[in-house]
Design brief:
It comes from Sphingomonas psychrotolerans. InterPro entries: HTH_MarR-typ, WH-like_DNA-bd_sf, WH_DNA-bd_sf. The protein is an alpha/beta fold. The chain has 11 helices and 10 strands. It folds into 2 domains: about 130 residues, Response regulator (Rossmann fold), CATH 3.40.50.2300; about 160 residues, Orthogonal Bundle (Arc Repressor Mutant, subunit A). It is about 50% helix and about 15% strand. The strands form 3 sheets. It has a 5-stranded parallel sheet, with helices on both faces. Strands 8-10-9 form a 3-stranded antiparallel sheet.
Length: about 325
C-alpha cells in the first residue's frame, strides 16, 4: 500500500521535511498504536509512549518536542485531570501542538483544561481525522499557519455571516416599504450583522427558538442527516435559547446540539470562538468543567436576526 503523505516534502532548507517529534501519552496499547500510526502517516516521529502515571509525575525532562498526543481512553479520571493541566501549561510555555483524543464523557474535562491556542480535541475520530489533526498541529508547531480544514470552515462561517446580514438587510427594506416610513438600521461594524431598529423591542421567547430547533431535528426522520448538516447555525440557535433561559451549556451538550460527529462539533466550536461569537465560561464550582455561551457579539447578532424576521412576519428557521 502506498504511503500517505500529508505534508509537502522539501529538498531546500529541510523545513518541511524535518520530522516533528511527538510525545504520546496513553494507557491503552490499542489507542497508543493508533496514535503512533497516524503520527507516522502525518510525517512525524514519536518518543517512547508514556503512561498517565508517568506523565502525571514529571514532564519536565522531555525536551526537543514539537507535539504532544494524548489518548485519554482508559486513563484514570484523577490522572487525566492532572496530565491535561500539565500538558496545557507545558504546551503554552514551549509553543507545542497538542492533539487529545477523548471519549464522549471526557469532553468537558478536556475542554476545561486544554486552553492553549494550538490544542485540538478529537472524539472517536476517523483515521483521516487523526492524521489531519496531527498534520495541522505539526505545521502550527513549525510556525506554519495553514490548517486547510480550519480555513475551509472559516470561509463557510464568513458566508453564513454574510447571508445573515443580507437577510436582515432585505427584511429591513421590506419593513420600511410596508410602513411607508424610513427606518434607521443598526449595523455592527465588527460582525457585519444588520437589522431594523425602529419600534419597540421585539419580544423573543426561548420556546420559539426551541421550536425551531425541534423542527430542524425532525428533518432527520425523513432525510439523511448529512443533507442538512449545519453545525454552526444549530449551535448558535441552541446557545441563543439557553441565553434566553439563563441556562449554561456544557461543551459536551453543545456537541450534541450540533447534530454532527463530536470531533466536527469541537472543531466548529473552535472556529466560532475564534470568530468572536462564542466565549468560554468557567464553572466557579468545578474547575474541571467549562461552559460555552454566546459572546455579546453573538447575542446581538442572534437578537437582530430574530427581531428582523419577526418584524417581517416571517417564521424563524
Amino acid at each position: 500500500m502506498a504511503r500517505l503523505t500529508m505534508l509537502p516534502e522539501s529538498s531546500g532548507d529541510g523545513y518541511a521535511s524535518a520530522a516533528a517529534i511527538a510525545l504520546v501519552i496513553a494507557d491503552s496499547p490499542e489507542a497508543a498504536a493508533e496514535a503512533l500510526e497516524a503520527l507516522e502517516l502525518a510525517g512525524g516521529k514519536a518518543r517512547k509512549p508514556v503512561s498517565f502515571a508517568e506523565a502525571s509525575a514529571d514532564l519536565s525532562n522531555y525536551d526537543g518536542l514539537d507535539l504532544i498526543l494524548i489518548e485519554a481512553a482508559g486513563a484514570p479520571e484523577a490522572l487525566l485531570d492532572i496530565v491535561l493541566a500539565r500538558v496545557d501549561t507545558m504546551a503554552r510555555e514551549r509553543s507545542l501542538g497538542v492533539v487529545a483524543t477523548v471519549l464522549p464523557e471526557q469532553i468537558d474535562v478536556a475542554a476545561a483544561q486544554l486552553l492553549g491556542p494550538h490544542s485540538q480535541i478529537l472524539c472517536r475520530p476517523a483515521r483521516a481525522e487523526r492524521i489531519s489533526a496531527i498534520a495541522a498541529a505539526r505545521w502550527h508547531a513549525r510556525g506554519v499557519m495553514d490548517d486547510v480544514n480550519r480555513e475551509a470552515e472559516s470561509v463557510r462561517l464568513r458566508r453564513l455571516s454574510e447571508e445573515v446580514a443580507r437577510i436582515a438587510e432585505t427584511l429591513a427594506r421590506l419593513t420600511r416599504s410596508e410602513d411607508s416610513e424610513p427606518r434607521a438600521g443598526v449595523r455592527d461594524r465588527g460582525s457585519g450583522y444588520r437589522g431594523p431598529e425602529a419600534g419597540p423591542p421585539v419580544e423573543i421567547a426561548a420556546a420559539e427558538i426551541r421550536a425551531v430547533i425541534r423542527a430542524r431535528r425532525m428533518r432527520a426522520q425523513f432525510f439523511a442527516d448529512e443533507l442538512f448538516a449545519d453545525p454552526a447555525w444549530d449551535m448558535l440557535l441552541d446557545l441563543f435559547a439557553a441565553q434566553l433561559e439563563r441556562r449554561q451549556v456544557s461543551v459536551s451538550s453543545l456537541c450534541i446540539a450540533a447534530a454532527v460527529p463530536p470531533t466536527t462539533a469541537l472543531r466548529w466550536i473552535g472556529t466560532l470562538h475564534d470568530a468572536g461569537l462564542f466565549e468560554r465560561q468557567a464553572d466557579p464550582a468545578d474547575r474541571r468543567r467549562a461552559y460555552i455561551g454566546l459572546s455579546p457579539k453573538g447575542i446581538e447578532g442572534m437578537r437582530s436576526y430574530a427581531s428582523a424576521v419577526k418584524r417581517a412576519g416571517l417564521p424563524l428557521v
